[in-house]
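Weekly sync, protein design subgroup
Attendees: M.S., D.O., the rotation student, P.L. (late)

Item 1: inverse folding check
M.S. brought a backbone from last month's batch and wanted to see whether the design step gives back something sensible before we order anything. D.O. pointed out we never logged the input encoding, so this time it goes straight into the notes. Structure tokens as presented (369 positions):
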């Protein structure tokens, strides 16, 4: 019998999605970039490594199974640049994280945005679905529409910032339906846009670009909710709100207070994966703004940025603290982010990665018996 998503909630012990690329896959991607192997040869290596990864996730005890984002260079650009009207290119410099700069890449909107059935992620999902089988749930991760608004260069001759919204949300509605028709019942939107509002530095960066932060929050809220209008009732759609994750470095900091009323009471998602692995995220008080008994919050209390395991009892105590603001049956546990938001991966070994995942599942079993 197929595993069911109970009450459209994430699993009590879950994960964000991306996983460390094995060395064989990294080498194959490099060979393909250098013209030493064909796209078909690379695809064969990807297929074989994803098959292995699916089994490793099952062995670790996960119920939600991803392809580790093994076919991607970036967690967001690979999806976005394959939308109609969008292309990726090298601008000559990367994004500045705390203590490091990313490799150079960006996306640009050059024509009317749309989604069509030729998008490669549909085939990626279908392959994953075939491998997972009936006793686990295949989970697809894609960037939220806000990532095109925040990270994409938009040709002013094509769109104004607000003018793009109808086409963008229509494209996402089509994408959601296409994944559903391919069998997907668990979809996650990954989003770093909300973290920009959590600190004065982030707010100033928006003002420097000519944005009104308050109006931008309204735009981002509309982008999510309008994209989700009409989604199938039996499809779980969650959102991961990230503060940056590039080779174990972060991008932003600040508590959720600044956007808590929006993310906890206005976004029409079924669940939120939130970073709470260190003091940069603040306390659990913002959870008091949750005004729905069907919204589930997945606490990212286990970090993917280093290999040392968190103290199990301390994690349980933090879950208990969060339960003072939101009932425990609406809470779950996961790592704070993926292990490899980009193909380089975090500074952690594969063995440590699986230890972290098992740690999450062991704690979840103890807490939600």
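Designed sequence read out in the meeting:
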């Amino acid at each position: 019998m197929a595993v069911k998503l109970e009450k459209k909630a994430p699993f009590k012990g879950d994960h964000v999605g991306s996983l460390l690329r094995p060395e064989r896959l990294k080498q194959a991607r490099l060979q393909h970039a250098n013209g030493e192997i064909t796209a078909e040869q690379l695809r064969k290596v990807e297929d074989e490594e994803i098959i292995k990864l699916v089994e490793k996730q099952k062995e670790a005890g996960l119920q939600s199974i991803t392809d580790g984002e093994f076919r991607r260079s970036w967690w967001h650009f690979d999806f976005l640049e394959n939308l109609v009207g969008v292309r990726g290119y090298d601008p000559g410099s990367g994004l500045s994280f705390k203590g490091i700069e990313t490799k150079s890449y960006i996306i640009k909107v050059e024509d009317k945005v749309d989604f069509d059935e030729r998008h490669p992620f549909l085939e990626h999902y279908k392959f994953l679905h075939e491998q997972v089988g009936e006793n686990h749930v295949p989970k697809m991760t894609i960037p939220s529409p806000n990532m095109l608004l925040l990270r994409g260069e938009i040709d002013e001759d094509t769109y104004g910032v607000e003018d793009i919204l109808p086409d963008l949300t229509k494209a996402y509605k089509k994408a959601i339906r296409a994944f559903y028709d391919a069998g997907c019942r668990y979809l996650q939107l990954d989003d770093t846009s909300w973290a920009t509002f959590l600190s004065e530095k982030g707010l100033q960066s928006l003002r420097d670009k000519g944005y009104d932060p308050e109006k931008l929050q309204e735009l981002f809220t509309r982008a999510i909710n309008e994209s989700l209008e009409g989604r199938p009732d039996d499809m779980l759609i969650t959102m991961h709100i990230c503060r940056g994750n590039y080779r174990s470095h972060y991008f932003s900091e600040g508590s959720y207070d600044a956007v808590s009323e929006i993310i906890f009471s206005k976004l029409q998602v079924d669940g939120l994966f939130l970073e709470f692995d260190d003091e940069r995220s603040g306390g659990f008080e913002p959870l008091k703004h949750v005004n729905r008994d069907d919204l589930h919050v997945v606490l990212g209390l286990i970090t993917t940025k280093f290999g040392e395991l968190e103290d199990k009892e301390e994690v349980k105590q933090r879950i208990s603290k969060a339960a003072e603001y939101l009932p425990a049956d609406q809470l779950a546990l996961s790592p704070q982010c993926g292990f490899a938001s980009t193909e380089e991966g975090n500074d952690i070994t594969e063995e440590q990665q699986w230890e972290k995942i098992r740690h999450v599942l062991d704690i979840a079993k103890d807490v939600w018996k």
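Discussion: The CA atoms of residues 202 and 208 lie 10 Å apart. The longest strand covers residues 106-114.
Action: P.L. to compare against the previous round before Friday.
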